[in-house]
UniProtKB/TrEMBL annotation:
<dbReference type="InterPro" id="IPR051814">
    <property type="entry name" value="NAD(P)H-dep_FMN_reductase"/>
</dbReference>
<keyword id="KW-0560">Oxidoreductase</keyword>
<protein>
    <submittedName>
        <fullName>FMN reductase</fullName>
        <ecNumber>1.5.1.-</ecNumber>
    </submittedName>
</protein>
<keyword id="KW-0288">FMN</keyword>
<dbReference type="InterPro" id="IPR005025">
    <property type="entry name" value="FMN_Rdtase-like_dom"/>
</dbReference>
<comment type="similarity">
    <text>Belongs to the SsuE family.</text>
</comment>
<dbReference type="GO" id="GO:0016491">
    <property type="term" value="F:oxidoreductase activity"/>
</dbReference>
<dbReference type="InterPro" id="IPR029039">
    <property type="entry name" value="Flavoprotein-like_sf"/>
</dbReference>
<keyword id="KW-0285">Flavoprotein</keyword>
<dbReference type="InterPro" id="IPR019912">
    <property type="entry name" value="FMN_Rdtase_MsuE-like"/>
</dbReference>
<feature type="domain" description="NADPH-dependent FMN reductase-like">
    <location>
        <begin position="10"/>
        <end position="153"/>
    </location>
</feature>
<dbReference type="Pfam" id="PF03358">
    <property type="entry name" value="FMN_red"/>
</dbReference>
Length: 242
């Protein structure tokens, strides 16, 4: 399957796996490999096996090492994300959440996000639906319909994937993702718009501080809430709507 000739998609992959080697990292890499078979991509791969120790002590974004600030800026500028985490205590890891707590809260509006997780048990497969999907729904991201869950049994002792069923699932996830990725918000245009927002965020943003939302993204075209409210309740909009 191949999309029409186009600029490569700007994909940011995040693996929350803390170990090295890491099953989560292998899983995310396998998803990236499958996607690259289907369409041109540029990849920025953020591996918690490399950055986890840099995250813990920071409560403000400008306390993070430059490397992690650059990773956050890459997440905010991505055309699409592929995110994977190991399951810890039936959820994503604390550090995975801590990283996304620093992401500017309007930066992922309408950004497609493919969800993945690796766990020790089949019984925690719904971590994709009950933990990861709500987190990215908070960001108003477009979580992709098919997520990928792997267990320890899907990997060889060297952490390559040996399960055909898991490979089929990855293929299905990418096949279902492609039509959505093709419309990934204003490919190539997000990066410039979001750069300024990331710079602002890097200045002083602690967890939970919001940047003004007015010029969100050309891509996401977030509707004016005032205008919507005015239509619903026949009120005069508070602000001028183009
Ligand atoms: C602290 C801790 C908690 C875990 N909790 C769960 C869990 O609740 N459910 C589960 O299925 N696996 C659990 N696991 C197993 C890991 O999710 C699994 O081995 C995962 O594939 C490890 O990924 P990695 O190789 O990328 O580090 C836990 C592992 C650790 C270290």
């Amino acid at each position: 399957m191949s999309l029409s000739p186009q600029k490569p998609l700007n994909i940011v992959a995040v693996s929350g796996g803390l170990n090295n080697p890491s099953k989560t990292e292998s899983l995310v890499q396998a998803i990236l490999n499958e996607l690259s078979e289907a369409t041109p991509i540029n990849v920025h791969f953020i591996k918690f096996s490399e950055i986890a120790h840099l995250l813990g002590g920071a409560i403000y974004r400008n306390q993070l090492p430059q490397r992690v600030q650059d990773d956050l800026a890459a997440v905010e500028a991505a055309d699409a994300l592929i995110v994977g985490t190991p399951v810890y205590r039936a959820s994503f890891t604390g550090l995975f959440k801590h990283f996304f707590d620093f992401v500017e809260q309007t930066a992922l509006v309408d950004v497609p996000v493919l969800l993945a997780a690796s766990g020790g048990s089949d019984r925690h497969a719904l971590v994709l639906e009950h933990q990861l999907r709500p987190l990215f729904s908070f960001f108003q991201a477009q979580t992709l319909p098919i997520g990928v869950y792997a267990t320890d049994r899907d990997f060889t002792p060297e952490y390559t994937i040996h399960s055909e069923l898991l490979r089929d699932r990855i293929t299905l996830a990418i096949a279902r993702a492609l039509p959505i990725l093709e419309w990934a918000p204003a490919k190539g245009q997000r990066a410039n718009v979001i750069k300024e927002k990331s710079q602002q965020a890097a200045q002083n943003l602690g967890i939970n501080k919001q940047i003004e939302q007015e010029d969100v993204l050309p891509s996401a075209a977030v509707p004016s809430l005032d205008a919507a409210e005015a239509r619903l309740h026949h009120k005069k909009p508070k602000t001028q709507v183009a």
